[in-house]
Amino acid sequence: MKNNNKKTLKKLAILVIGSMIAAYGITLALYAGFGGATLAVLWQGLARTFHISIGAASFVVAVGMILFALIYDKSQIQIGTVLYQIVYSACVDLFANCHIYSTYKWINFIIMLLGVVLFAVGTGLYASASLGRGSYEAVTFALAEKNHWQIKFVRMALDILVVVTGVLLGGKFGVCTIVTVIISGPIIQFVNAKAKQVLKI
């Protein structure tokens, strides 16, 4: 029993740390001036349209996605889904004004790349705890598994939908959006596998 409790606490700690790293990375990339990651474009649009913070916008989007997944396929939602989103959204606002950028675009571009990498590392670390998928992943897998669709095509369609909606609401599509789509997947997969191996979870 004690071992099980220790393992659960370890997983919760990893989830929280991963969530914080991911939130720091996404805000670092978001405010560098090269647009936002896919979901961040939608957050920007909602924030500008309804005059709320980026963190609040991310939380609103997540709640909508969690409710959809609960109705469509509740097996996708676990304690980690909710805990991750609370920590993540709170930290997005907390870290929003903690970054220093340069007057040189190429330096800001490097900062943006670092932010995307940190976001992917944090997401991979959080996922390694296996306490439930993030809200976006929950919707992706719910749609794919219930309809026997390929996950990659569902994710591509959702990415297009959230980016287009975000842009229409005033969000900024840019280099960051493209870079996130290209490099985040492989990094998340690598960190997820390594974290499970090294941390023995």
Major sheet summary line: none
Q: Helicity level, as a percent range? A: over 70%
| Count of domains | 1
Task: List SSEs in N-to-C order.
Answer: HHHHHHHH
Question: What structural category characterises the helix and strand content?
Answer: mainly alpha
How many whole angstroms does the radius of gyration measure?
16 Å
- The helix count comes to 8
% residues in beta strands: under 5%
**CA-to-CA gap between the ends?**
16 Å
Instruction: State the total count of DSSP E strands.
Output: 0
What value does the average pLDDT take? 89
Global shape: globular
Spans of 5+ residues with little confidence (pLDDT < 50)? none
Keywords: Membrane, Transmembrane, Transmembrane helix
Transmembrane segments: 12-43, 49-70, 106-127, 160-183
Protein name: Integral membrane protein
Pfam family, one: DUF6198
